[in-house]
Design brief:
This protein folds into 2 domains: 113 residues, Beta Polymerase, domain 2, CATH 3.30.460; 59 residues, no CATH class. Helix content is 46%, strand content 19%. Strands 1-2-5-4-3 form a 5-stranded mixed beta sheet, with helices on both faces. The chain is globular. It starts with 15 loop residues before the first helix and ends with a helix.
Length: 188
Amino acid sequence: MIENFKNIEYLKHGNKRQKLAFKEINRHKIFEILKVYNPILTGTIPIGIDLPESDLDIICECDNHTKFKDYLTKTFSEKKDFRVYTKQLDGIESTIAEFKTDHFLFEIFGQNIPTEKQNAYRHMLIENRILIAKGFDFKQSIKKLKSEGLKTEPAFAVLLGLKGDPYSELFKYETGTRANNGNLCRNL
């Protein structure tokens, strides 16, 4: 599995859906358009636990939400079902644009936080390390729980026996595992 998700080239060598995502992102020049915002593809598709209806989540770093929103509108408003809005998520101002292409729903998400430090990216890295450590059956169990309606982080929490808020518990789980065992992948 991949450890560096900042360059989407890995998608070219992935599963069928990852290859399709690579083509669709490039066809619409999404990363070229968003380059100044340090885009990173996050979510379930990069780590291979997506469902047929899973979207392409692209996080961005923006320090001016009005400017970012205007740029997204100017650039993507002709796309099918385009909408853009700004709201508070966990007390952080976040601007989100959504639109559809032939094969995917795209969700572009911007916060005034470096993309490598945003929760979506951090969660994906943790989930990827857990998937590597736990193997194929664990991955299939995650996908099964997701197909039954659970979101990704809650599905991980169920299988790992985490109690409380699954989003914050994943951070604690990795920190605790690393502190107790030294290496999450080697010791899960």
